[in-house]
Structure formats: C-alpha cells, structure tokens
C-alpha cells in the first residue's frame, strides 16, 4: 500500500467517512498488546469526534445546552458526515451547523435560528479589524456627490434572516436566568456586530433590513433612500437610519465617484 | 541557528486578562497559528500587545506537511501574512499529516517512516520554506500507532528530514516519552539520534495514563519521567528555547509560569553539572 492509499484508508476510518476495511487496517497498523491495530486507529477516531464536538459547542454553547450532550454529539456526527471540515482552522468546522440544523426535524423549532445567531456572534467576535467611519465622511461630500455615495461596511457586521425571533431565548440562556420561552415563529432580521471587543445583536425592521441589504450590495445612498419611499417622512427616516449605522460603528468607509 | 529565547509558555485565551493587567511575565510566547489567521478583535489586540514586549513563535497545527493532498496555498498565504505582521522568532508545525481530499481531521496523524514518506516530506518542506522565505521548525508528534511498512526509526527519519530539507526541529520531550511508552522504544536512543545542531526548541507538557496507552493531553503538570528526559535533553543539546504547553484544564497563569520556571531550574542545574 503506498502513502496515498494508506492515508485514504486511515483518514476514512478516523473520520467515519469510510466504514469497514477492518482487515486492511489490521494489516497496516502494528498490533502491540494490549491494543491491536484497529483499536489503535480507534483512539484517533474517538478524538476526532470529541475534538470537533468541543469546537462546535464552543460556537453554539446555548444550542448545545438545550439539546443536551448526547443529542448534540449525535447531531454533530451527522453534520460532519455532510459537512466535513475543509478549513485548517477548526473554529470554522461549525460554520454550516445552524443552516444544516434547519434540515433536521425532531428538535425544538427555533434551535437552528439560535445556532445561527450564536455562530454569527462567534464570527463577529474575531472578525478582521476595520476602521470606523463617522458621519462626517458623508457630510464632507459635495451635494453633487452625496447621492452617489457608497458605504463600505465593517467585516464584523452580519445580517441574519431568521425564521424565529430568538432574542429572548438567547437572553434567558446567556443570562442563565428566567424561564426558557416557547419558540416565537415569524421572519426576523437581526444585525450582529462588534464595537471594540463587545458583540451586540439587535432586531431590524423590514424597511431597515432592506436598506441595509441594498447598501451592503453596493447600492448608492440614493438607492438606499429609495427603499424608504412610502414612509411618512422618507428622507428624514432614511437619514436617521443611515446615521444610526455610523453610531453603531457598522460603516468602515464612504466613497463616491463624484467628489 | 535561531536565538535562545529562554523559557516560555503558550498564549491562551484564559490568560488574556492577567497578561494584559500584570504584564508579559514569561520570557516568550508561542501562539497557535490557526487561532490568529485573519483574526481581529481581542485576540489580535492581545497578540500585538504581547509581541510589543516579548518574542513570539508561530506554532501551526494544520500545515499537514506529510499529507498527499496538495499544499494549501490559501493557508500558506495567510501564514505568510501573519508572519510578516508578527515577525515571529520562527515558524513551526508538526511532522505529520492531517488532511486527505481536503478534509481536515484536525489531528496530528503519524506518518509511516519509509523512503517514500521521506522523499515526499522533504520535497514539501523545501517548497514551504521557499514560499515562506524562511527555514521552518518541525515537531515530532506523539503517536498511538505505528505502521508495518515503517522501515526507518522515527528519530532517524526526523534527522534525515532536517538534513535533506535543511529545516530545524522542535523536540517535544513529552511526545518522545509518550511514543516511547506506547511503542516500546528507548527514549534515550531517540535523543541520541537527533542531531544537536538542528534542535531549535523543546516542548514540555503533561499527559494522561489510560492504562492501555499514554494520551498526550496537555492538561496536567509535566510529570517526573518527562522532567527526567528533559534533563537528558539539556545534557545532550545544551541551552535550547523551552516552552511549556498547557491546552486543556488550563490552570491560572501563575501555575503555568511556575512550570516554565521549573524548566529553567532544571536547565541551570544540568548545565552547571555539565560545566563541572
């Protein structure tokens, strides 16, 4: 067996992606009492699952707590089968866990959304640093350039589209106090971000969520403002909203082609 | 060769507050490379603060130098960027493999010690060193299995990789003890097989005895047999930058620093004994 064949055999066995082939494993791995070759490989297989369960639980501590350890381990095992870790960084192993949970029945309905929120908070905590722009960057633009202004957002800003409002659930679990509320179904958009080293999340109205999405996708200030058409005071509401993005430190820079 | 940094500890999240409040009290710090790739926020701020005061070494766990997968270009680019930002005393990783088909097992899996593996690893170390523009330092891993195909003693394999690829070695004394116990070889023979001029760093750590085998857990103080082997290592290799690893059930900072001080004490007594 050459090096590639040996690695395929061992890797499959350790990660659980390949079942069987016990005789081949015993043939390749030296038995030394009290452990035969297969038992020696199983040491690595046990550590593989244990290590990834720990890493993913670190991402979604409240979700894993609600599920209970045994159920969480089984879910992680099934998840890894569909989403084997592709990143050198083990903290990325759970990046699809929340979305994957949505495909899984038999668990509390809002747990996928809780997992998505927890994962976003975890990502935001260590997202790359970026400068924080103030509203003066917008104000410094000429009247001619202002409508064409574009926002560049901090890499630590996340926008989550959830199927349940899990804010109260997260609060109760994070504070370890109060009764766990029943699932609260309904589309909910949350922004998750970091200021200095502190992570926040907040709910957004449908209107603000749409404006933020337009801005994040490269829309101009004029296009952002257009999403507020139909409001009683669209210009005022639009500017108030945009100013709040600066106040929360979401904006890293403002550019305009016409300055 | 690389500079002698003294006796350091691993930079761990649990100790961030103490390190920032009390100053950087170890001689130097080793950081897990993957924890700081493309990372901002508090971890990056702490790393920068530590680096302003003390030497730092980047210690990776995912280079997978022995894997048959192609080298991960993105990983190497990120590593290069981090190294440029941090200016580490050196960059280390493990003589092992961990990926297959781009699927990461997040483990340090042992290689078969064969001529095929040797040629494969030497070629990849050379490629990585060329990419990074520096010599890398490779660590011996602890292991729980050996292969029937192995035809070269582990220590000779390590020495030959270092010689042919012109890289340096991180001798993990705990790993030598763990593997020697698990596979029944002589740890002293292992040390004798490692070329003195290639060793850039020592690792020390604790492990667990599970009855059927020793498990390299990094969750306990350095046990007596590892201290004894460390003294043998100092006797053979002289003053070498030494680092205490503690990655699980991490105690307060003072306790980890006390282990580093213990290493300093053993090193001093051995060097005095040798000088006499």
Quickly list its features.
heterodimer; A: 259 residues; alpha+beta; 2 domains; three-stranded antiparallel beta sheet; two-stranded antiparallel sheet; 49% helix; B: 276 residues; alpha/beta; TIM Barrel; eight-stranded parallel barrel; 9 helices; 12 strands; 18% strand; globular
Please describe the topology of this protein.
The complex is a heterodimer of chains A (259) and B (276).
Chain A: H1 3-15, H2 22-28, H3 37-59, H4 61-67, H5 69-82, H6 97-101, H7 111-125, H8 136-139, E1 150-153, E2 158-164, H9 167-175, E3 185-195, E4 198-204, H10 206-216, H11 221-226, H12 234-247, E5 251-255
Antiparallel strand pairs in A: 1-5, 2-3, 3-4
Helix pairs in contact in A: 1-3, 3-4, 3-5, 4-7
Chain B: E1 7-10, H1 16-22, E2 29-32, H2 41-53, E3 56-59, H3 73-86, E4 91-94, E5 97-100, E6 103-109, H4 115-132, E7 136-139, H5 154-165, E8 168-172, H6 173-183, H7 187-193, E9 199-204, E10 208-209, E11 214-215, H8 224-237, E12 241-244, H9 253-275
Parallel strand pairs in B: 1-2, 1-12, 2-3, 3-4, 4-7, 7-8, 8-9, 9-12
Antiparallel strand pairs in B: 5-6, 10-11
Helix pairs in contact in B: 4-5, 5-7, 7-8, 8-9
Please, could you describe this protein's structure?
The complex is a heterodimer of chains A (259) and B (276). Chain A is an alpha+beta fold. Helix content of chain A is 49%, strand content 13%. Chain A contains 12 helices and 5 strands. Chain A has helices spanning 3-15, 22-28, 37-59, 61-67, 69-82, 97-101, 111-125, 136-139, 167-175, 206-216, 221-226, 234-247; strands spanning 150-153, 158-164, 185-195, 198-204, 251-255. In chain A, β3 and β4 (198-204) form a beta hairpin. Chain A is elongated. The model of chain A has no long low-confidence stretch (mean pLDDT 94). The mean pLDDT of chain B is 96. Chain B has one domain (7-275): TIM Barrel (Alpha-Beta Barrel). Chain B has 9 helices and 12 strands. At the A-B interface, α1 and α3 of A face α2, β5, β6 and α4 of B.
């Amino acid at each position: 067996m050459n090096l590639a064949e040996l690695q395929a055999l061992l890797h499959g066995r350790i990660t659980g992606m390949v079942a069987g082939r016990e005789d081949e494993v015993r043939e390749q791995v030296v038995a030394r009492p009290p452990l035969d070759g297969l038992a020696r490989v199983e040491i690595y297989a046990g550590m593989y699952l244990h290590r990834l369960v720990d890493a993913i639980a670190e991402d979604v501590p409240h979700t894993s707590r609600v599920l209970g350890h045994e159920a969480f381990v089984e879910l992680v095992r099934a998840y890894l089968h569909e989403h084997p870790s592709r990143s050198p960084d083990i903290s990325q192993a759970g990046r699809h866990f929340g979305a994957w949970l949505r495909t899984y029945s038999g668990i509390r309905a809002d747990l996928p959304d809780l997992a998505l929120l927890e994962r976003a908070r975890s990502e935001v905590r260590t997202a790359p640093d970026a400068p924080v722009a103030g509203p003066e960057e917008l104000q410094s633009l000429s009247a001619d350039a202002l409508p064409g202004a574009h926002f560049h957002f901090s890499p630590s800003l996340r926008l989550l589209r959830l199927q349940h409002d899990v804010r109260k659930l997260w609060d109760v679990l994070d504070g370890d106090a109060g009764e766990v509320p029943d699932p609260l179904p309904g589309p909910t958009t949350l922004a998750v971000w970091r200021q200095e080293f502190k992570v926040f999340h907040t709910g957004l109205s449908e209107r603000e969520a749409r404006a933020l999405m337009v801005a994040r996708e490269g829309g101009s200030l004029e296009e952002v403002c257009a999403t507020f058409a139909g409001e009683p005071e669209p210009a005022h509401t639009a500017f108030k909203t945009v100013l709040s993005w600066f106040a929360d430190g979401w904006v890293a820079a403002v550019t305009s082609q016409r300055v | 060769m690389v500079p002698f940094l003294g006796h350091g500890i691993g930079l761990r999240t649990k100790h961030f507050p103490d390190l920032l409040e009390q100053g950087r009290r170890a001689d130097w710090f080793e950081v897990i490379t993957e924890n700081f790739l493309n990372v901002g926020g508090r971890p990056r701020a702490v790393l920068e603060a530590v680096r302003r005061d003390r030497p730092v070494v980047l210690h990776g766990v995912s280079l997978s130098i022995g894997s048959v997968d192609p080298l991960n270009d993105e990983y190497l680019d990120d590593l290069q960027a981090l190294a440029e930002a941090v200016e580490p005393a050196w960059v280390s990783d493990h003589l092992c493999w961990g990926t297959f088909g781009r699927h990461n097992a997040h483990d340090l899996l042992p290689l078969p010690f064969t001529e095929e593996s040797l040629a494969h690893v030497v070629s990849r170390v050379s490629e990585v060193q060329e990419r990074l523009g520096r010599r890398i330092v490779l660590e011996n891993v602890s292991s729980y299995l050996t292969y029937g195909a192995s035809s070269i003693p582990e220590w000779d394999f390590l020495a030959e990789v270092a010689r042919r690829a012109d890289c340096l070695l991180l001798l993990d004394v705990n790993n030598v003890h763990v593997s020697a116990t698990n596979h029944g070889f002589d740890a002293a023979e292992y040390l004798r097989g490692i070329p003195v001029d290639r060793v850039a760093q020592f690792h020390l750590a604790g492990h667990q005895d599970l009855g059927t085998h020793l498990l390299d857990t990094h969750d306990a103080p350095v046990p007596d047999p590892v201290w004894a082997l460390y003294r043998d290592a100092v006797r053979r290799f002289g003053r070498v930058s030494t680092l205490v690893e503690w990655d699980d059930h991490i105690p307060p900072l003072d306790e980890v620093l006390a282990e580093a001080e213990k290493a300093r004490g053993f090193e001093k007594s051995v060097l005095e004994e040798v000088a006499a």
